[in-house]
Write a structure and sequence with these properties.
There is one protein chain. With 200 residues, the protein is mainly alpha-helical. It has two domains: 1-52, Homeodomain-like (Arc Repressor Mutant, subunit A), CATH 1.10.10; 55-198, Tetracycline Repressor, domain 2. Helix content is 74%, strand content 0%. It has helices at residues 6-26, 33-40, 44-50, 54-72, 75-78, 84-100, 111-119, 124-150, 160-181, 186-198. Helix 6 packs antiparallel against helix 8 (124-150), helix 6 packs antiparallel against helix 10 and helix 8 (124-150) packs across helix 9. The protein is elongated, with a radius of gyration of 18 Å. The mean pLDDT is 91.
């Protein structure tokens, strides 16, 4: 892994923060490198020192946003809670809140889902990175389901891996519908359905 000086790390972080916001607001294809450079307040030389092209930046931003999401969701604390069923539902509610925005913020959808819709066919590195991130979240859900089953909180006959995939797919689909309507409706119904399906 490439090592950076403290100054270079600050510059890299500024580029990632700017790209994260611009990609989330307008999408990957609509956001040019020059716009990212201007928003980050760096030079073109700074940009290309860290990233050889916009596609490489995209995979780095996906990693950056994943780490941000895990921290904001407080996943480390949730997965260590004794009541795994409650932790699972808390995680889903927090995920929904992140994707739906606030009262004055438009529904942006899932950052990773947005990339999947826009670039899964056009960029193999981005497709692989998005799949890796989805697999990580599926694994988190599976672990919580398994622990909740062991504690008798969730229906024992459910297959944890399959159920985790169904939950992730339902959440992503519901958020996509809410993004299309710009109204947070479907995802809340999806969470209620998941709780009922699990027996919580």
């Amino acid at each position: 892994m490439r090592e950076y000086s403290a100054k270079a790390m600050v510059t890299r972080e500024r580029i990632l923060e700017a790209a994260n916001e611009l990609f989330y607001a307008g999408g990957f294809n609509a956001t040019g490198v020059d716009r990212i450079i201007a928003a980050a307040g760096v030079t073109k030389g700074n940009f290309f020192y860290h990233f050889k092209n916009k596609e490489e930046l995209a995979t780095a931003v996906l990693d950056w946003h994943r780490d941000l999401a895990l921290a904001e969701l407080d996943v480390a604390n949730l997965v260590s809670q004794p009541a795994a069923g409650e932790a699972l539902m808390t995680l889903l509610r927090r995920m929904a809140k992140r994707m739906l925005g606030g009262e004055l913020c438009p529904v942006r959808g899932c950052f990773f889902g947005n990339f999947a819709l826009e670039l899964a066919v056009g960029s193999e590195p981005v497709r692989r990175k998005v799949l890796e991130i989805f697999d990580h979240f599926r694994s988190l859900l599976r672990q919580l389901i398994e622990r909740a089953q062991a504690a008798g909180e969730v229906r024992s006959e459910l297959d944890p891996e399959r159920t985790a995939g169904l939950i992730l797919g339902l959440m992503e689909g519901a958020v996509l519908l809410d993004k299309a309507s710009q109204a947070p409706r479907e995802v809340n119904s999806a969470i209620d359905f998941i709780a009922s399906y699990l027996g919580l």
